[in-house]
Amino acid sequence: MKHILKIAGYAWAVACVIAVLATFMGNDYFAARLASATGVTISPRYSGGEIVRSVDHGAYRTVIHRPVFDGLIGERKDGFIQIEWQPVTALPPVIEDGIDFTGDGKADFAFRLDTAAGQGTLTPVNPSVIALQMLLKVNQGWVARIQLRKVS
Hints:
By secondary structure, the protein is α+β, with helices and mostly antiparallel strands. The chain has helices spanning 2-26, 28-38, 44-47, and strands at residues 51-56, 60-65, 68-70, 75-87, 94-99, 109-114, 119-124, 129-138, 141-149.
C-alpha cells in the first residue's frame, strides 16, 4: 500500500509540473505576465539591443539599434551593432546607407546591400568598426550585425 501511495504521489507531481509548463508555454498572456513580474528581459546579444533611431527613406526604413557590448559580468571589449532594413512598400534592389551610430552627425560606416543577391559590403569609417558579422534575410527585410571593438 505504501508503494502505491508513493507512486501515485510522484505521478501527481509529474502531472502538475507538465500542466504548469503547458499552461505557461501555451498561453502567451500568462507567460508574459510571469516574465514581467520577475523582471526577466531578453538578452541584447539575442535581440540586437534597443532601437535608438529609425530613418525613413520612403519605400523602406533603416532601423539602428544601440551598440551592444553587454557581457555576463560587465562589458566586453568586442561587441556589435544591429541594423535592419524594413520595407514600407518594397526594398530597392540595392541599398546604400551611411550609418551614424555614435550620434555625432558623421557616418561611422557605409553599407551597401544588394537585396537581389543577398550580399552586403561594409566600408568602415570609424576605427571601432571591424567587420560584417552577419547578414540575414528576415520576413520581408534584412538584418546586419556589424562587429565593433571599443577604442580607448
